[in-house]
Design brief:
Shape: globular
Helix content: 25-40%
Strand order of the largest sheet: 3-2-4-5-7-6
Bound molecules: thiamine diphosphate
Largest sheet: 6 strands, parallel
Radius of gyration: 25 Å
Number of helices: 22
């Protein structure tokens, strides 16, 4: 057996009698259903790559760990399986933190495996040494170090299991270089068998609560449901769709659940959430917390019957009292309630037509009000017009990713993804820079889909260089930039508070012709200055991506003096 703490160049033993830590990691990842790792190389982690080669696990290497981390998160969102990020020690880990933290606040199941200096050099000041386990602990569900080669695979399984315990989320595992490189007899290694180390997470809570909820639903005259990201992440969306349609319930979607119902569905609502929160007699909140995006629950009428279903026990009733709370799997719970209702003589669905009509009329009125902005042909281009054109452009097979401040907030007013999983956003951490990693992940997970990322110019500048990674791995995408040469979402509040002179400080960017960036990488680029040129440019970009296999950039110059309503009343801070 080699002592790889000192002999890092000793040729790998391929006899099959021994196995190294990196190979055990790869075996355990394979058992978890991981088919791809997202990474940026470093001497501490290369044995994992060698293991992945043996196990047939695809290695997607990036130019920045933050992007790799967002991609691992995005891959989990898109596949419903464990995402896996592998980074080297020290800066490899710290660069990835924003991606891991984004997954933490978005409840996305990803395993981050990080390198560390050799155990034999513990606390001696080895290259890139940092206390990773401590650093990562507050932004993961589980953070631990692997202390022996024999346990490397076992600990991967343990960390992966934690990612799916309750509300999903990330885990971190630090593996010292010598632990990873050391070769041990195969017989001494612990490798949990697939399917034998997990309980089902499809729990429905107390069956009596299912009956109670069934009662509440059949008796409700004005029910509404808000379906959140957990429902998509746990793939409970079909159960939600079946319930909503059969019971005739007004359905609102947020986060990853957007696209679950298409805009054309009669139960789809999105502009009347506030009204529904005020006028419903029964409101079901499923898989989304009462956080700032929900005004901490304050916008919901006090005396309606409020039911909260969540994967996490500790999210139920947080910030807002509820009448009934159920912790468990959203899809399993909704299916169980639906089944319980099927036995009832009258499920109450017919009596709700008037309520749905009332909401529909309000939806239409709200859309009517926005139409002049959506169709504005002003110059410089109104950001609402971009949002409208993007929505017109989307197909059932387009995954829409939003990465930016104001322009992206505005886009949510018009863009309605046309299928489940076709919406990706950073979630509660509000991290700019998710777009490029998400786009690559979405492309790798869905080779048959078109990927479009709408960026602010500030956001595009943060992580765009990994567009080269997208091109290198054959997953080109359409990048659309709402370019206002500023960090507008922040700028608005600064101008309002400090006036024009002091308000334009620290938020202005240069005028960058980003189309040239796509061209530099061998792709198609366009600069768009007129509203009527948006759609033709998008269509040309679609064609160019198909024919060239390279990402395209449509750089749309938008009016820097137009802002989203949420930015104007600073909803995010209330
Ligand atoms: C990583 C990160 N840094 C800073 C912020 C604060 N922030 C929120 S919106 C915004 C401006 C974003 O500018 P851009 O992407 O160009 O979109 P715009 O608001 O101009 O439409 C900033 C800096 C953030 N959310 N995330």
């Amino acid at each position: 057996m080699s002592d790889t703490a000192t002999d890092t160049l000793k040729e790998k033993d391929r006899s099959g009698e021994v196995v190294s830590g990196g190979h055990l990691v790869a075996k355990a990842l394979k058992n978890e259903g991981v088919d791809t790792i997202f990474t940026l190389c470093g001497g501490h982690i290369i044995d994992i790559y060698d293991g992945c080669v043996d196990e047939g696990i695809r290695i997607v290497d990036f130019r920045h760990e933050q992007v790799a981390a967002h991609a691992a998160d995005g891959y989990a969102r898109q596949t419903g399986k464990l995402g896996c990020l592998v980074t080297t020690a020290g800066p490899g880990c710290t660069n990835a933190m924003t991606g891991v933290a984004t997954a933490f606040r978005s409840e996305s199941p990803m395993l981050h495996i990080g390198g560390q200096g050799a155990l034999t050099q513990h606390k001696m000041g080895s290259l890139q040494d940092l206390p990773h386990v401590d650093i990562m602990a507050p932004i993961t569900k589980f953070s631990a170090g692997v202390r022996s080669t024999e346990r490397a695979g076992d600990m991967v399984s343990m960390a992966a299991r934690e990612c799916f315990a309750g509300a999903y989320g990330p885990s971190y595992l630090e593996i010292p270089r010598d632990v990873l490189d050391r070769e041990v007899p195969l017989s001494s290694a612990v490798i949990p068998e697939p399917g034998k180390y997990r309980a089902s997470v499809k729990s429905i809570g107390d069956p009596a609560d299912i009956e109670r909820l069934a009662d509440l639903i059949v008796k409700a005259e004005r029910p509404a449901i808000l379906v959140g990201s957990q429902v998509w992440m746990s793939r409970g969306h079909q159960a939600a769709i079946d319930l909503v349609k059969d019971l005739n319930i007004a359905c609102y979607m947020n986060g990853g659940a957007r696209g679950m119902l298409p805009q054309t569905d009669s139960h789809y609502y999105n502009r009347t959430r506030r009204l529904a929160f005020q006028k419903a007699d029964l409101l079901l909140i499923v898989g989304t917390p009462f956080d700032f995006r929900m005004g901490y629950g304050k916008r919901i009428r006090e005396d309606l019957t409020l039911v909260q279903i969540d994967q996490s026990y500790s999210t139920v009733g947080k910030n807002r009292d509820v009448d009934l709370g159920i912790a468990g799997d959203p899809g399993a719970i909704l299916s169980a309630v639906h089944a319980a209702i099927k036995g009832r003589v009258d499920n109450g669905s017919k009596g709700r037509d008037g309520w749905l009509k009332e909401l529909r009329a309000a939806e239409e009125a709200a859309t009517e009000k926005l139409m002049p902005l959506f169709l504005s042909d002003q110059s410089p281009i109104h950001p609402y017009r971009v949002a409208w054109e993007l929505n017109e452009f989307l197909t059932e097979k387009t995954v829409y990713i939003g990465d930016g401040g104001d322009v992206v907030t505005i886009s949510a007013q018009a863009v309605a993804p046309k299928g489940p999983g076709n919406w990706m956003d950073p979630g509660a951490l509000g991290s700019l820079g998710v777009g490029t990693g998400f786009a690559i992940a979405a492309g790798l997970a869905n080779p048959e889909k078109e990927i479009l990322c709408y960026y602010g110019d500030g956001s595009f500048g943060m992580t765009a260089f990994d567009m080269e990674t997208a091109n290198r791995f054959g997953v080109p995408y359409i990048a659309v930039i709402g370019n206002n040469s500023s960090m507008n979402q922040i700028r608005y509040g600064q101008i309002a508070k400090y006036g024009d002179q002091r308000g334009n400080v620290g938020n202005k960017l240069g005028d960058v012709p980003f189309s040239k960036f796509a061209e530099m990488l061998g792709g198609h680029g366009e600069e768009v200055h007129e509203a009527n040129q948006i759609q033709p440019a998008l269509l040309r970009a679609r064609e160019a991506v198909k024919t060239s296999g390279k990402s395209a950039v449509v750089n749309i110059w938008v009016d820097p003096n137009e802002y989203a309503p949420g930015t104007k009343n600073q909803t995010m801070y209330k």
